[in-house]
């Protein structure tokens, strides 16, 4: 390369990019590599020999599978609540006039601006007053209260591109209002509903701050992992993390390949 | 309301409004009002609830002001969260600018996907990765010792560990809003400035940052709020000397057994976050509709 005035900033930027991605991936690489170390505590230094025993340990960890199951149950119900309510919220919002809309909008996005621990605490104290303690039910309620916001925003974004004349055409052809909703509007929203559903599942499974306060005696995956750190961490948790990272990378690559194929097709 | 009925018919409109009402009243407003109610009442044995002592007061909140350890931790959480937001901004800004202005579409796609990989696994596992990396006898110390940068292992757990873990956790919340707002900046403005002799620093200070201020404000607000309300990073990566306000709140609920005081502390945290949001929106002259994008 020719030495010119551009070279120094370019070198600095390359250095920054290298540092950034090192920062991003070094922890994951270490966590993944520690899965194969025969050490009781997850680490890569010192290396006590390569082993696959921690995958076997993970498979035998009944409490972990129980926690994973709890997380899935919670995620299922969160989606079941958040999709209809979030869609309803987006529809109500877009049907309102400007002034009422901005007030309602502020109220609807407020859970996103509320710290997760506060959402958990507020839900906990309300339901204690009516005699309901922490557990799967409250986890669902607390998580849904803010995951609905994400669904609402995604559906509202899709609704902005909806052409209302389609509804008028269907009505003009004799469809009932309910039929228009079911046959015209819902199919139009379907891609956004899928995307929102996936996001809701991910948000639910990854949640910790809110869940911690409303969990009662139930232990979803994030709480289980965090507890492990206190009670004795073994690389079995790393095996789980590695599986999740691998699934993510494969999913991301598949998505990118599909996207490129789509753009090429035009 | 009328337009809703007109569009969807009475039955469906009632269901839609009903769902939204249940959400906003029972899941958003009522819990927060109940938390305020708890915060303002004293912690009493069950028999005394509703009795003459059960009156509203600000005692739980003034307790926080008087208790010097908790007060110190509260202010430390505030400025440390601001520091996290600032540091995350510094880390993310160059990449966001490059992605939005210089990268080819395929480069952008690859980098965005690479960025999301750590974020599909959950926050606890992300923090755990740092917990392993920063352990006293862990890989980072081993590496630095073998290279000879340090002579004896460093205790990373504490303020440094919490900072590293939090920046890591909130990169995307900072990067995406800034990226979105810089993307809409017309390249020719940058070229014009450069042709007129502006330095790189000046171009960023006078053109890019003012243009992207909505995105920057959004990223900083979210990062601040997430940091102030974070529990897992301080719990795993902290040390006894680096306690976080959320840990104090947690202790009131599950160890101190005083839910009223815990609720009061949570209320203080909520009010703080709302004030920061409003202040940031005011300074950047952005409205809420832009933030939630």
Note the main attributes of this structure.
heterodimer, A: 266 residues, mainly alpha, 11 helices, 76% helix, B: 293 residues, 15 helices, globular
Structure, explained:
The complex is a heterodimer of chains A (266) and B (293). Chain A has 266 residues and is mainly α. Chain A is 76% helix and 0% strand. Chain A has helices spanning 7-33, 53-60, 62-94, 98-109, 116-129, 136-159, 165-172, 177-206, 209-214, 221-231, 236-265. In chain A, α1 packs across α11, α2 crosses α11 (236-265) and α3 runs antiparallel to α8 (177-206). The longest helix of chain A has 33 residues, at 62-94. Chain A is globular and about 75 Å long. The model of chain A has no long low-confidence stretch (mean pLDDT 89). Chain B is mainly alpha-helical and 293 residues long. Chain B is 77% helix and 0% strand. In chain B, α3 (59-66) packs across α14 and α6 packs across α8. Chain B is globular and about 75 Å long. The two termini of chain B are 25 Å apart. The relative contact order of chain B is 0.12. The model of chain B has no long low-confidence stretch (mean pLDDT 89).
Helical region count of chain A? Answer: 11
| Low-confidence blocks of residues of chain A | none
**Binned strand content of chain B:** under 5%
Globally, the shape of chain B reads: globular
> How would you classify the quaternary structure?
heterodimer
Radius of gyration of chain A: 24 Å
Q: What's the N-to-C terminus distance of chain A? A: 37 Å
- Distance N to C terminus of chain B: 25 Å
